[in-house]
TrEMBL record:
This is Metallo-beta-lactamase domain-containing protein. It holds the Pfam family Lactamase_B. Transmembrane segments: none annotated. It comes from the Bacteria. The keyword Hydrolase applies. InterPro entries: MBL_Glyoxalase_II, Metallo-B-lactamas, RibonucZ/Hydroxyglut_hydro. Keywords: Hydrolase, Metal-binding, Zinc.
Amino acid sequence: MLKYRIIPVTPFDQNCSLVWCDETMRGAVVDPGGDLDRVYAVMKEEGVTLDKILLTHAHIDHAGAAADLADEHSLPIVGPHKGDDYWIQGLPQQSKMFGFKEARIFEPAQWLQDGESVQVGNVTLSVLHCPGHTPGHVVFFDPVTKLAIVGDVLFNGSIGRTDFPGGDHATLIRSIKEKLFTLGGDVEFIPGHGPMSTFDYEMKTNPFVGGQWG
């Protein structure tokens, strides 16, 4: 079964996640934006051995430390969708713009497509391509525990920004309604920032998409 710990990182309090299979204790880090010392501390506490890095998208606060983590632990970077390649190429510029430690450009070992899956130990995570915040944004979903890691697509009470290059509001709303909400209202999700929520709660109360469902 999938287990997880949320690890807030970077000055933006981005929800980096350590996820692992409790049968094998093999795991992955989702969206290592920075502060790898915090990630390593949680790995040690939980006794998790890393197999890979998973990226929802390539904004600096989600992908800024991916290259360092990959090098330090000889890990493949999996994701996001290739639509975010230009964000990866721009990581050094993003670093300067937001005052982060300089992030290095990398080449993912695997670009992800909608409908694919990734393994974390014995757990199979479904991949959903959910553009709108960025063109290549993906979401990871575990149908067994009904947990989704949605990055910056949807938040508790809000939605992702669409004013960055490649963002599109209508596309984002469509991703939320057609890709996420159709997974079921009882799905709990980890957003890229802020507290967790459920799709049912957001359908009913989120001012950006609540009341538009059904």
